[in-house]
Amino acid sequence: MLQESFRLLFHGSPMPTALCDPESLRFLVVNDAAAALWGFSASALLAMTAFDITPEADWEDVRAFAQRDRESASNQRIGRHLRSDRSMIDVIVHSRAITFRDRQANLVTIIDVTEKQRAETRLAHLEHHDALTDLPNRALFRIRLDEALARLNCEQDELAILYLDLDQFKAINDTLGHRVGDALLRAVADRLRACLRPGDMLARFGGDEFAFLCGGLSGPDEASKLASLAADVVSRPYVIQGHSVEIGTSIGVAMAPGDGRDSDLLLKNADMALYRAKEEGRRACRFFEPEMDARAQARRRLEVDLRHALAASEFDLYYQPLVALQTGAITGFEALLRWRHPIRGMVPPAAFIGLAEETGLIVPLGEWALRQACAEAAKWPNHLKVAVNLSSVQFKSGNLIHSVLTALAHSGLPASRLELEITESILLVESEANLATLHRLRGLGVSVSTDDFGTGYSSLSYLRAFPFDKIKIDRSFVSELGNGGGSMAIVRAVAGLGSSLGVATTAEGVETSEQLAWLRAEGCTEMRGFYFSPPVPARKIAAMLKANETADPRFAPVRKH
Ligand code: C2E
Ligand code: CA
Ligand code: CA
């Protein structure tokens, strides 16, 4: 009776269980759960030993386990079993010595922990890897960097961090969508991975940032070689979901021990070198230099000064005339910011607009420029317009419509005399919201022009997205006009596009009478440039208008530059 219930319990148990001979490890009895676990029939198992379900590499472990079984009553082993289909499972094996039919036997139970183990391994992997590319993440990079720095012996041994940031990735992501963006990041990761030397590491720091860690270098040359290889492979064209895509990368390099022996400092220095590479334009590579640190500090000082400049009334607007190409008459002025710094003197916008955008200061500053420009324009004859530059950051602030309305109301300037200049970047980010803002602005009667046309990523689709009132052809095309190349064809195409769309075209940066004649012949409607006049302070406008009154057909410049 007892025997019978034991048999029932044994065979009916969901826990894989077997009885083994302690010497030969032959199976004496196995239950159904064990047969199912290993994938053999119970009768086949009775002709087998524990070795038959163990990978050969683990046989030594099994022998040692059996030996321990003879010495202690209960025993446990974590190991692997081989199923009949040759697949491997992770198991915990429990064994206990018992007496069975008057002889010694081991009662063995098996717990399948394969899934659990896999889940744990997966978790540990996720903690240190990037889900999109499966590359190590920043955390793992830091750990490996710390280890490598600790190993670094001061002799010839050097290590390098190469910090990569893709150029204009955001534009691709925003225009072609996140799916293409993600696929591009994976493709870039694959190509970079192929550049790895044994022992080196590649990580993704998030977004479009990657980093190499290379040890055992004998100097910067090897780092330099890796940088150009990486830049080269990344910049080869991609075809992603039917789109052909091109992208470049900027690279910043810091070396240890020269640029620091501490991971924080090295990463900061590599980042600073990358920042410089970015500043230099696309596809540049820069090694860290101590003066970069000095520059970064100078930038921080500039930022502090910039924060005070508005309250201290250090800003001013200069005005550059826009001239109709058919008549030579001034049609309006573009307002351009000037910063009169108490110590540095005149700081050009190129030196502070970017900083003002990064710090958000462009919002109050842009508001001030709008108010000031409208107030000034209200004093001019009624047919003259004023153009004001807007930054994409002002769109994000959500306050733009209100600022425009206030500036118009305070100055009494009719909306039709205000022209807002925007660049492509405005439609590249949050384009839905920004488009809605643009439509509302235009609904107020304000006109909207595209600044720096032709320099962006998707100029043509940008023209389709919004009914612009004016296209401003970037200075870079105008200045190249005499030098062959594609500039003539581009200017001609844009002028033609403008006239067929019924949109005015303004050529920027006209410096010579040859450029002027050419642009006129091509049918551009307006020009602006040093040839006619540089930007001037507001007080000089009246005299300029007076001189222009006779609207000289030769477009006599007010002042040559
Ligand atoms: P932009 O809107 O393309 O302005 C034209 C720039 O080209 C001005 O430089 C102007 O002085 C310069 N320029 C005009 N004619 C010629 C020429 O014939 N030859 C050459 N070489 N240059 C010429 P500026 O005043 O230094 O402004 C630079 C940029 O700063 C502007 O480019 C604009 O993007 C930005 N900016 C200026 N004022 C503001 C502002 O109030 N708000 C915002 N968001 N940006 C501004
Ligand atoms: Ca402009
Ligand atoms: Ca421009």
Structure description:
- It is a single chain.
- The protein has 3 domains: 4-117, 2-Layer Sandwich (Beta-Lactamase); 130-288, Reverse transcriptase/Diguanylate cyclase domain (Alpha-Beta Plaits), CATH 3.30.70.270; 299-553, Alpha-Beta Barrel (TIM Barrel), CATH 3.20.20.450.
- Helix 7 (169-176) packs across helix 8 (178-193) and helix 11 (290-309) crosses helix 12 (349-359).
- By secondary structure, it is of the alpha/beta class.
- Strands 13-14-16-17-18-19-20-21 form an 8-stranded mixed beta barrel, surrounded by 4 helices. Strands 2-1-5-4-3 form a 5-stranded antiparallel sheet, with helices on both faces. A 5-stranded mixed sheet has the order 7-8-6-11-12, with helices on both faces.
- The radius of gyration is 37 Å and the shape is elongated.
- A hairpin with a 5-residue loop joins strand 13 (315-324) and strand 14 (330-341).
- It contains 22 helices and 22 strands.
- It binds ligand C2E and calcium ion (CA) (2 copies).
Keywords:
single chain, 561 residues, alpha/beta, Beta-Lactamase, Alpha-Beta Plaits, TIM Barrel, 3 domains, binds ligand C2E, binds calcium ion
Short précis:
44% of the residues lie in helices and 25% in strands. With 561 residues, it is an alpha/beta fold.
Topology (SSEs and partners):
Elements: H1 2-12, E1 17-20, E2 27-30, H2 32-38, H3 42-45, H4 59-71, E3 74-82, E4 88-100, E5 103-112, H5 114-128, H6 138-151, E6 158-167, H7 169-176, H8 178-193, E7 201-206, E8 209-217, H9 220-235, E9 238-240, E10 243-245, E11 248-256, H10 263-279, E12 285-287, H11 290-309, E13 315-324, E14 330-341, E15 345-347, H12 349-359, H13 362-377, E16 385-389, H14 392-396, H15 400-411, E17 418-422, H16 425-428, H17 431-443, E18 447-453, H18 459-465, E19 470-473, H19 475-479, H20 487-501, E20 504-508, H21 513-521, E21 526-528, E22 536-537, H22 541-548
Parallel strand pairs: 11-12, 14-16, 16-17, 17-18, 18-19, 19-20, 20-21
Antiparallel strand pairs: 1-2, 1-5, 3-4, 4-5, 6-8, 6-11, 7-8, 9-10, 13-14, 13-21, 13-22, 14-15
Helix pairs in contact: 7-8, 11-12, 13-15
Bound molecules: ligand C2E and calcium ion (CA) (2 copies).
